[in-house]
């Protein structure tokens, strides 16, 4: 079975401060890991995926297989980063089946 | 490009009834997945359909079923509704051609189901 854990339900940081949203996973195979974000009154949307190794809106996430973690980081938080962030795992390459963590609500204080 | 469309947006049903929710994916997307979102359990994967076949299934009872049509549109059915089925049901479509970069799920706005 697979499991995604996001230990923080709520996270508040000041504008310009670094942000780290934690995500740990358990799965016996080789999963794909994602971060999805939901801004106020918008749809859930993909922020980034580990396989792309890209930086989106200043966010990065590194897959650490040893620690089974996929933490999301940004060096300088902006007010527009305030949103709900979900870490998700897919068991199959190229398949549309996601197992989500419970989410972290990030608030960036001006 | 039109996004994922779910209908209806809101539903109120009585316990014991059944309900059918509809999802129209983005044009060209062959995979449609369904998720249940509740305050207590968060986002939970129900099932995925690809080319009219159920490809993956989550851990939900048989009262939850789905299907996909040849135009990739999908429906989800819940029979014998229980109070605990009250939730936001999200649909997501994806190209899912088997390549890793195909694995981006595009979500609809959801159908809010209330069982009374």
Condensed summary:
Chain A has 110 residues and is mainly β.
Characterization of the model:
The complex is a heterodimer of chains A (110) and B (116). Chain A is mostly beta strands. Helices cover 0% and strands 44% of the residues of chain A. Chain A is built from no helices and eleven strands. In chain A, strands 2, 5, 6, 9, 10 and 11 form a six-stranded mixed β-sheet that branches. A three-stranded antiparallel β-sheet of chain A has the order 3-8-7, with no helix packed on it. The model of chain A has no long low-confidence stretch (mean pLDDT 92). By secondary structure, chain B is an all-beta fold. Chain B is built from no helices and eleven strands. In chain B, strand 4 and strand 5 form a beta hairpin. Chain B starts with a strand and ends with a strand. The mean pLDDT of chain B is 92. Classes of the chains: A mainly beta (110), B mainly beta (116). The interface between A and B is medium-sized, with 25 and 32 residues.
